[in-house]
Write a structure and sequence with these properties.
The chain has 166 residues and is α+β, with helices and mostly antiparallel strands. The protein contains two helices and eight strands; from the N terminus they run βββαβαββββ.
């Protein structure tokens, strides 16, 4: 179902795979960016990328469980960090490694960026995961709610987009 590949002719990656291959006869979950907000929508760890990474991973774990998957079935992530300093990116990556996300290892890209969507946000992780066939969680039509997000230039936060009229 899932094969992680480290290409022998490339530089050995530090605890991640160059590629992940998933057979087509499986369910995949494409998760929206996990952000450092608590259940009330408040920013966790203002000014602290390590603390924010911990909250992001806790939220990612919740997202995965909601679709019947887990950290061990993540095949790919993009880790965004508001910083141009390699030491800050490394500190966030250390949190990712400690989370169990790098078990496998999975394919990942660590990216330093200028800004993320929420005021004060320093870390965001997007993920793709396999949903194991043994998963007891099967979303029903009632669970699927169409959503959209609009990023408004010069806005302080990301706001939900208004539904389109049919």
């Amino acid at each position: 179902m899932l094969k992680r590949v480290t290409v022998p002719t490339l530089f050995p990656p530090p605890r991640y795979a160059h590629a992940s291959v998933v057979e087509a006869r499986t369910r995949l979950a494409f998760l929206a960016g996990s952000v450092p907000l608590d259940a009330d929508g408040k920013l966790v760890g203002e000014g602290d990328p390590v603390r924010q990474a911990q909250q992001v991973l806790a939220n990612l774990d919740e997202q995965l469980r909601a679709v019947g998957s887990d950290m061990a079935h993540v095949v790919s992530t993009d880790v965004y960090v508001v910083s141009g300093e390699p030491s800050v990116l490394s500190a966030v990556w250390d949190v990712v490694e400690a989370s169990g996300l790098s078990t496998g290892p999975h394919s990942s890209t660590l990216i330093g960026v200028a800004c993320l969507g929420y005021t004060g946000q320093l870390v965001e992780i997007t993920a793709t995961a396999v949903i194991p066939t043994s998963s007891a969680v099967t979303p029903t039509a009632a669970d699927v709610v169409p959503t959209a997000t609009a990023i408004v230039p010069n806005a302080r936060t990301v706001a939900p987009a208004a539904p389109r009229e049919a």
